[in-house]
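To whoever is on call:

I kicked off a structure prediction for a single chain this morning and the downstream step that reads the tokens threw a length-mismatch warning. I double-checked the sequence; it's 180 residues and nothing unusual in it as far as I can see. Pasting both halves so you can look.
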Amino acid sequence: MEQRMEMRGGGTLTLRQDGPRVCLEAERPADGRGLYKAWLHGDRGGKFLLGTLAPEGGRLVLRRTLSLGELERAGCWPQFWAEAPLAFSFQPSGPSRGGWYCEQHPERLLADPVLKGQVTGPMLCKRGEEGSFCLAAPFRPDRPAALTALFCLARVERWEGKAHLVWSFDGAGQPEIPKK
């Protein structure tokens, strides 16, 4: 049985129960405003993060398959609603030369083949002077970090209450050592 519902914040969530598993697909228009996260909210107060929607075919999409038990333990089954709020805005929050945007292929900007291989998808990017740029990725201590080879060169910045690792690169795509 397939069920489709509107998500608060825009877009739709389609779910299909397949025995003890539930296949979920969140989708919303790609508006270029930033990163969106899909959440389930149980009618009894549970909350479950499905993940971040990624660009695909001009839209933002997220696909997950979860067990019914996992959703029940999170308090998000059988009664729930879904939302896809803007989790990170690409609009700069303060004065800057350029705003943050979603770089679909950040590996193209990097000179080192090891670093290119550690890029697993789109990252936030901000251009600077003379071709320099910064890359940023959300950081959670319980998840693998992006660009692990450069972890020690990252600085942590908070945007909208969430920690992000930020790396600076020169115009040739080489990492810059922090000056502080």
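Update from on-call: the warning came from a stale cache, not from the record. Cleared it. Sanity check on the structure: The chain has two domains: 2-89, 101-169.
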